[in-house]
Write a structure and sequence with these properties.
By secondary structure, the chain is an all-alpha fold. Helix content is 60%, strand content 0%. It starts with a helix and ends in a 12-residue tail after the last helix.
Length: 83
């Protein structure tokens, strides 16, 4: 299954679990219904960061594990040398 199709399926399934219509999700996430429809139908392959975060919050999805799977563990480095 292609990753864009997987995102589409996850969005649809999560929306069903929370019993949300596109309009309700749109209102909760401050994302247009047409954008949600485009993501669900696989016409938007790379939605913007604001859209992803807004939808995740509205759908009660923790992005932490997803981000770690993409970036790997984040190793914090000091901003300045401590010499």
């Amino acid at each position: 299954m292609r990753s864009d199709r997987l995102r589409t399926v996850l969005l649809n399934q999560r929306k069903k679990v929370l019993h949300l219509s596109r309009a309700e999700l749109s209102e909760r996430a401050s994302v247009s219904v047409s954008t949600i429809r485009a993501i669900e139908e696989g016409r938007t392959v790379d939605p913007g960061l604001f859209t992803v975060i807004s939808l995740a919050v509205a759908l009660q999805i923790d992005l932490g594990p997803m981000m770690t799977s993409v970036t790997g563990p984040i190793r914090h480095k000091p901003l300045h040398d401590t010499d």
